[in-house]
Amino acid sequence: MTSLDQFPDVVLLNILEKLDILDVLSLRKTCRSLYNFIDDVCPNKNLQVIKITTFSNAIKLEFVLPDSQRITVEYDDFHGTSCLVRWTKIPGNPKIKKETILKNADFMGVASRDLEILLKHQKTKLTYLKISFQSEIDAESLDFFPRILESRPRPLQIENLDLEVTQQSQLLQILPFIDPDAVSYLRIERYGSRGVVLEIDDVARLENWKTLRNSIHIGWNNGNIRDFLNFSYVYVKFPIVTVEDLVFLKETFLHSSRMNCVYLQVVTPVDLPELLEAFGPSNDDINYMGGYRKRWFFKCYSNPDDILSIGFNPRCLHFQREN
């Protein structure tokens, strides 16, 4: 009986095209010749969603296919010398679960090679990619991320990118290697300790960062409002903003034809008398939650039919284009 690795390449490729991700990843671990063949020619699986979660001693990959099938693969350190791999496929009848132990294998190496196969051959835009770093893993241990992304013939296209990190170096493993024109929504949060500020000074200097154009949601960070003026919609949290920052934001907004909404949260209350001196007299009203706020209205220079509305309370400011 002819073994699978002895089939002609064309036949083997046809077989791979009919298999799902779980089967391909399992088959890849059976022998060296299939491992190499799949690495070279694995067909595009048109993944819609990828979620990657890293722990200190495990990595979990989750995939959603066009038919809404969900597949989870977990890679756990096993006694420091081997890798325990668990597969789950939903829907299944019944739900498919299996596991295997790969001896003399590092969990991070096994996971990174599987992920590389899938991302290397991903040709369509991902609807959603989430990467969650749930431990203080140093950048050198995660160097497989840039290696995988650099191996692609073109930057990875992602519509919605969701990053949970513990340090700036983890962002620098991802953001330089994505297609900024494809990103509609970017979310960045610091994982773990609430209120701890995430450093983003190096991130804000990236060329990819400067060319992002759509929406960003970012938690407490040490950046400056100037780091976010290329986005159309901004939700950002700072420890402090100055009135000088707010005046600069107002003037930039008034001259911009692209900016639509900036929502700022701050820890240190903004000095209202200084802001009134800079913005002029305000109107008082009640927001949708029933709280009192100050409001200013300015005609946009970029389009006289548009109005910049600024809502203020000491720890929240909302800049909104209205027409």
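^ that was protein a. below is b, sequence first then the tokens
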Amino acid sequence: MNKWIRNTLIILVVALVSSGLGIYVARMDFFMEKPKEVDTSTIANEMKKIAELATYEYTYTDVVFVKADKKFNGITLPLTKTSFLAKYDGYIKAGVNLQDAEIEVNEELNEITIKVGKSVILENVVDTDSIEVLDEKSSLFNKLETQEKIEEINANKKKMEEKIIAGGFLDKADENTRLLLESTFKMAGFDKVNVVFK
């Protein structure tokens, strides 16, 4: 297969597949004034123009409960008990940063090796429109500020991230990355695709 045609196909396939998997495209140059020889560094450069490749997403619904009061000498003061109970939806995305991708092509064997970093958390987002207050009690002398509620939600968000990472979330993202890159470059005409996490 002509080098320019094959490598242009690689770029197109990566772009098409990535659009369905939440890849954030920084810039992609599809239109060239004239055909030119595209070597290994060109493939790597085109991949690096795609900033992040999101390969795994976890969606969840969580509940946050905040309870506070004021004490004096260990005794709860009257009219200071306050609480806040709400539920919300969120999602966490993981994937790889293609800025550090390395490409090696063996023309004789029609083989490509792609070296990428291991998956990391790309996004941890709470859908603010989904927040539903289930119960809220304010006291005359102790009101929960909006910032306190936000801080508690952010703390819960971090706990959720740590929980799913402990459950193998990033390992699954690595596997999805490997499968995606293998299928993408085989579609582009390579007989063998090696994905190496560095």
